[in-house]
């Protein structure tokens, strides 16, 4: 998939993604954790988390909703960007930090993150594509290896609020 095709997908999903993020934040996580994403190639009972990170260039705080899975006590997210030929901004920003803040439903955490390698990555990728089959299509659409990020909670923190974000995610 070219970056141009990925841009078309992002534009088509932009309003949905913005509405999803705002619903998740406004409800304190009571709504938005489980969503029917069959219209965009997902499952009817798909799980979503929020990640909060600081822009490496802007210094602004961003909150991004992402599909996730839980494997071995770690939360796994995928830096797919819809199969674009370049990594999403949230992933590039995460690379500049040892820690990550994430929210699942009504609970938020500060934790560490890592990228699985080798056979572990293969196992986690298979698990992620079983949970969210569209990731396999995204991988077929690009030459880059789509990164997987595994997050481990260290401490509970207050749930995210819309006012925590000083920047708006660019789709």
UniProtKB/TrEMBL annotation:
GO terms for cellular component: plasma membrane. GO terms for molecular function: coenzyme F420 binding; oxidoreductase activity. It holds the Pfam family F420H2_quin_red. It catalyses: oxidized coenzyme F420-(gamma-L-Glu)(n) + a quinol + H(+) = reduced coenzyme F420-(gamma-L-Glu)(n) + a quinone. Belongs to the F420H(2)-dependent quinone reductase family. This is Nitroreductase family deazaflavin-dependent oxidoreductase.
């Amino acid at each position: 998939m070219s970056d141009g095709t990925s841009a078309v997908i992002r534009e088509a999903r932009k309003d949905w993604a913005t509405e999803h993020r705002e619903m998740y934040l406004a409800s304190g996580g009571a709504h938005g954790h489980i969503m029917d994403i069959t219209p965009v190639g997902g499952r009817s009972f798909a799980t979503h988390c929020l990640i909060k990170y600081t822009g490496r260039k802007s210094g602004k705080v961003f909150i991004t909703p992402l599909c996730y899975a839980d494997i071995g006590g770690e939360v796994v997210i995928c830096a797919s960007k819809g199969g674009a030929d370049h990594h999403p901004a949230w992933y590039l920003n995460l690379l500049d930090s040892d820690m990550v803040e994430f929210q699942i439903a009504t609970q938020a955490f500060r934790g560490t993150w890592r990228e699985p390698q080798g056979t572990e990555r293969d196992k986690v990728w298979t698990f992620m594509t079983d949970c969210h089959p569209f990731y396999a299509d995204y991988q077929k659409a690009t030459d880059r290896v789509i990164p997987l990020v595994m997050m481990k909670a260290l401490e509970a923190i207050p749930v995210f609020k819309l006012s925590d974000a000083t920047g708006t995610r660019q789709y």
